[in-house]
Amino acid sequence: MTTPEKKPKKNFQKHNPAIATILSILFAGLGQLYNRRYIKGAIFIVIEGAFLFAFLEAINYGLWGLRTLGTIPGVDHSIRLLVLGVLSLIVTVIAITLYVFNVLDARKQAQKIKRGWVPLSFKQVIKEVYDYSFPYIITFPGLFLMIFVVIFPLLFSLLLAFTNYDLYHSPPRNLVDWVGLDNFKNLFTVPIWQETFFSVFVWTIVWTVVATTLQIALGFFLAVLVNDERLKFKKLIRTILILPWAVPAFVTILVFAAMFNDDFGAINRDIIIPLFGGDGVAWLSDPLYSRVAIIMVQTWLGFPFIFALFTGILQSISKDWYEAADIDGASRIQKFKNITFPHVMFATAPLLIMQYAQNFNNFNVIYLFNEGGPAVRGQNAGGTDILISWVYKLTFDTNNYSMAAVISIIMGLIVSGFAFYQFRRTRSFKEEGDI
Q1: Are residues 138 and 236 in the same domain?
Q2: Residue range(s) defining the domain that contains residue 354
Q3: Where are the alpha helices (H) located in 115-190, listed in sequence order?
Q4: If we measure between CA atoms, which residue out of 160, 206, 208, 204 comes closest to residue 184?
Q5: Same domain, 333 and 413
Q6: Is 3 left (phi over 0), alpha (psi -120 to 50) or beta?
Q7: Which of 160, 193, 224 is the last residue of a domain?
Q8: What DSSP designation does 375 have?
Q9: Half-sphere exposure (CA, 13 Å, Cβ side) for 380?
Q10: Is the domain of 148 the same as that of 38?
Q11: Which stretches are transmembrane (predicted)?
C-alpha cells in the first residue's frame, strides 16, 4: 500500500532539489538531512566518514602499489601490492557506487518533497523497508561474499596475466613488472609456447567432445535398454549399472592406472599378451594409447550418472504417447525418434551442457591417471595434458604464474562462451511467458 500524498504546502514548494544535490555532492548524507531523511542521512555520513578516515590512506597505498608493483627490490613485495591494489580497487568502486546513489537519492527525494510528498515516519520507514527492500537485505551478505570470493580472484588472475611473474621475477627478491600483452603475444608466436598451446588445445577439444559424447551415448543406450518392458530383473540391473558411481572417482582412476600399466598392468599381462603376444600395448608411454585409455576411463566414470538421469526421464514419459503411436502404426525407430529422444533431450539439455563444460576442466582424471604424461619432445606439456592440467604444471612445477593466468583467461572465455551460447539456445533461461 502506497502512502497517500498530502497537498503541497508553501514550505514544500520552496524545497530546492538543486540544494539537496549540491549538499550530497559536498558530503554524502547532507542532502538526505536537508530532505528530513535523518536516518538515511546519518548512515551515508557514517559510511563516507569511515571511508575518509579509516580507508583512504590504505586505498591510496593500494592503488599506488597497483600502478607500480613496487619500486625497491627486497623491500616491496609486488604480489602483496597487487593483492592490496585489487582490494583497493573493489572498495573504491563500491564507494563510488554508494556516493552516486547518495546524490541521485537526495535529488529524487527533494523533487518528491517539492511536489508535496511528506517524508515517512520512522515506523513507516521500517514497514516500507520490510515490504520492498527485504529481499535485497537478505541477498546482500551473499553478494558481499561473492565480491571477495569470486570477483576478487578473477580480477587478480586477470591482472596477473599482464605481468612477468615467474620463477625469475619472484618477490621479494625481485620485483614483478607490468608487461602488457607480451604474454598473450608469446603464447601465439614463440615456437615452444605456440606448439604446446595448439597441441594441448586441440586435444582438450577432442577429449571434451569424444569422452563426454561417449559417456552420454552409453548412458542413454543402457537406459533405453533397461527401460524396455520386455526386460526382466530391472532393479538388479539398474543397481549393478549404478555401482561405478558409488565408488569414489579417485579410487577408480588409480585402479585403472594400475590396470593400464605397461609393465605389470592386468590389461597387458592377462589380456593383450596372452591373446596377441608381444610386449603388450604402451598405454602409459605412448601419447595415442594414453589418450585412448583415458577416454575409456572417463566413459566408465561418467556413464552411471547419465544412466540414472535418463532412466528417471524415460519413466516419466506417458505410455499413452506410445499407445497412440502404435495405433498409428509407428515402428520402434519412429517412436524413438519422435517421442523418446526429443523428450529426453528437452528435459536434460542443461545438464548435458554442464557435462561438456565439466569435462573441459576435468583435472582429476587427467592428473591421477598418469599426471598428464607421457612427455612430448618440443613441448612443455604432456601428451594427455588438457588446458587445466597444463595450467597446474605451469603454476606448481615451473612457477610460470603469468602464463598460467593467460591460459586460465582463455579457458574461462571458451567455457563461458560455449555455455552461454548453448543455454540461450535451450529454453532453460527463458521466462515462462516467453516459451
Answers
A1: no
A2: 184-434
A3: 122-128, 134-146, 152-160, 182-189
A4: 160
A5: yes
A6: beta
A7: 160
A8: B
A9: 19
A10: yes
A11: 41-61, 81-104, 136-162, 200-224, 236-260, 292-314, 339-357, 401-421
Per-residue pLDDT of the chain (435 residues; tens, 9 = 90+): 444 444 444 456 677 888 989 999 999 999 988 888 888 888 899 988 888 888 888 999 999 999 999 999 888 999 999 999 999 999 999 899 999 999 998 999 888 888 877 776 767 777 777 777 777 778 888 888 888 888 999 999 999 999 999 989 888 889 999 999 999 999 999 999 999 999 999 999 999 999 999 999 999 999 989 988 888 888 898 889 988 888 899 999 999 999 999 888 999 999 998 888 788 899 999 999 999 999 999 999 999 999 999 998 888 888 888 888 888 888 888 888 888 888 888 888 888 888 988 899 899 999 999 999 898 888 899 999 999 999 999 999 999 999 999 999 999 888 888 777 776 766 555 554 454
Q: E strand or H helix at 357, and its extent?
A: helix 341-360
Pairwise CA distance, residues 159 & 154, whole Å = 9
> What single-letter amino acid sits at 43?
I
User: What cell numbers appear for 22 in the block?
Assistant: 549540491
User: Are 92 and 13 in contact, with CB atoms under 8 Å apart?
Assistant: no
192 contact partners, CB below 8 Å, separation of at least 6: 378, 379, 380
- Grid coordinates standing for 406? 593467460
Using DSSP's 3-state secondary structure scheme, residue 279 falls into: coil
Q: Identify whether residues 287 and 327 lie together within a single domain.
A: yes
Q: Are 125 and 239 members of one domain?
A: no
2 lies in some domain: no
Largest CA distance in the chain: 104
Q: Could you tell me if 214 and 120 lie in one domain?
A: no
Looking at 160, 193, 226, the residue that finishes a domain is 160
Q: C-alpha distances in angstroms, 419 versus 149, 344, 426, 428?
A: 22, 19, 11, 12
Domain presence at residue 232: yes
139 domain residue, yes or no? yes
Cell of 412: 574461462
Classify the C-alpha dihedral 385-386-392-395 as positive or negative: positive
Separation of alpha carbons 24 and 58, rounded Å: 24
Within a domain: 42: yes
Mind giving me the DSSP string for 208-250?
A: HHHHHHHHHHHHHHHHHHHH-TT-S-HHHHHHHHHHHHHS-HH
Asked if 154 and 192 sit in the same domain, the reply is: no
Q: Is the peptide bond before 119 cis (omega within 30 degrees of 0)?
A: no
Secondary structure in 3-state letters for 273-302: HHHHCCCCCCCCCCHHHHHHHHHHHHHHHH
